[in-house]
From TrEMBL:
Family: Belongs to the purine/pyrimidine phosphoribosyltransferase family.
Domain Phosphoribosyltransferase residues, every copy: 8-159
Protein's pathway: Purine metabolism; IMP biosynthesis via salvage pathway; IMP from hypoxanthine: step 1/1
Gene Ontology MF terms in the entry: guanine phosphoribosyltransferase activity; hypoxanthine phosphoribosyltransferase activity; magnesium ion binding; nucleotide binding
Any one of the GO BP annotations: hypoxanthine metabolic process
EC number: 2.4.2.8
Keywords for this protein: Cytoplasm, Glycosyltransferase, Magnesium, Metal-binding, Nucleotide-binding, Purine salvage, Transferase
Organism (species): Syntrophotalea carbinolica (strain DSM 2380 / NBRC 103641 / GraBd1)
Coiled-coil regions, chain positions: none
Descriptive protein name: Hypoxanthine phosphoribosyltransferase
Main location: cytoplasm
Signal peptide span: none
NCBIfam families according to UniProt: HGPRTase (TIGR01203)
Cofactor annotation: Mg(2+)
Amino acid sequence: MLDSLKILYTRDQIAEQVRRLGSEINRDYAGREILLVCVLKGSFLFFADLVRTLTCPVVVDFVRLASYGCETISSGVVEMRKDLEFSVTDRDVVIVEDIVDTGYTLQTLYHRLLDRKPRSLKICTLLDKRVDRRVDIEADYIGLALDDGFVVGYGLDYQEKYRELPDLYVLEDAPPVDEERPI
């Protein structure tokens, strides 16, 4: 099925953006500890590469959200399947996301964490797909822009396939989806 994949960003282009994002975060949090929150599953490769670029003290934690259940169309209800193990209260927190498109899931997570009173709360995303944005949420750190298309590779999947690909591809024959992919 690789013939239905069109390369969007190479592993070298991705690595360059990850290094740039790491430099920005290092600059903004120099000498301060940050809690990095990985949004599973799609962000895990980006998250691991990003963590390795950081020179400031880092604590890592993970969340997993779902709004699909077994369907391909969002139920509209965001369910927390795995919550944080560490408190965010009075901490500098950066949410690390693979892609921001409609923004529904990220907005829900952002406000849940904001209610827990962090010192600061920012968002870092590898891909920013503004064309599909339906809510008022913006990332503070943006790796790459995406105009349109369903992206797989580098941790992102379609029906749990393609996560292992080292580059990012547009899946040309993917059916349209109503919301962010199941995570």
